[in-house]
Amino acid sequence: MNSALVDYLRVLRIRWRFVAWGLLIALGATTILLLLLPSTYRSDATVFVRTPGDISRVVDGGDRYAQARAKTYAALASSPSLSARVIADLGLDLEPDALAGRVTATNPPNTALIEISVSAPSASDAQQRGTVFLSEYMAMVRELESVPGALVPRAELVVVDPPGRASRVIAWGAPLSVVLLGAGLLGMILGATAAVLRSVFEGSARDQREELAITEARTTVSVRGETAGRQEREG
């Protein structure tokens, strides 16, 4: 086994308390931070991009058009102009950019689906905003896809899953267990680093003390030798 690795493991075995304290401090700090963070709730919904007009009669049934539109409208979901319509409907005291930042929309690959999430400080607000957002979202798409003289738009959004009961978002959207595990690993790494640095500094200080002691011993021997030689010459 590599000698450096052996030395590293020996240091960790001797100074295991550093690793333990790093773990406890990291978990404690993460827990306190999670408790202090404001509550956030999220309501999820899913819509499907349908092509009811002439596009549906092409060879692929309009699948390519729908999938391309799904990517475009997933990006449109975070538009401040769309959020402004929701704010006006609900009379919210929010800036459009602030509400837009609480909306996420993703288009799963090779599908015409759009998965939407709307966040708010309370469960009721999240579901209400999700419902109104979805209504305005569908209206905006219908306006953009409407063709003068046509009875139906080129594409429209169809609700697959309506905004459901909001759930609380914890640990920055990641599972709590994953966040705590990551914090614990980080704490252990920092503790192990502190243990190694402490060992290096103590070893350096010990070497300096030993070197000083050797120098002093040599000086004492030299002085004593000179004194003895002078006494012999005087005698």
So what's the overall shape? Answer: elongated
Strand content: 5-15%
Rg over C-alpha atoms, rounded to the nearest angstrom: 35 Å
| Residue windows where pLDDT falls under 50 for at least 5 positions | none
Mean pLDDT: 82
Q: What level of helicity do the residues show?
A: 55-70%
Secondary structure class reads alpha+beta
Count of helix runs: 7
Oligomer: single chain
Elements, N to C (H/E): HHEHHHEEHEEH
Q: Please describe the biggest sheet, giving its number of strands, its sense, and whether it closes into a barrel.
A: 5 strands, antiparallel
- Terminal CA distance reads 63 Å
How many strands appear in the DSSP assignment? 5
Description:
The chain is elongated, with a radius of gyration of 35 Å. The chain contains seven helices and five strands, in the order ααβαααββαββα. The protein is an alpha+beta fold and 235 residues long. The protein starts with a helix and ends with a helix. Helices cover 62% and strands 14% of the residues. Strands 1, 2, 3, 4 and 5 form a five-stranded antiparallel β-sheet that branches.
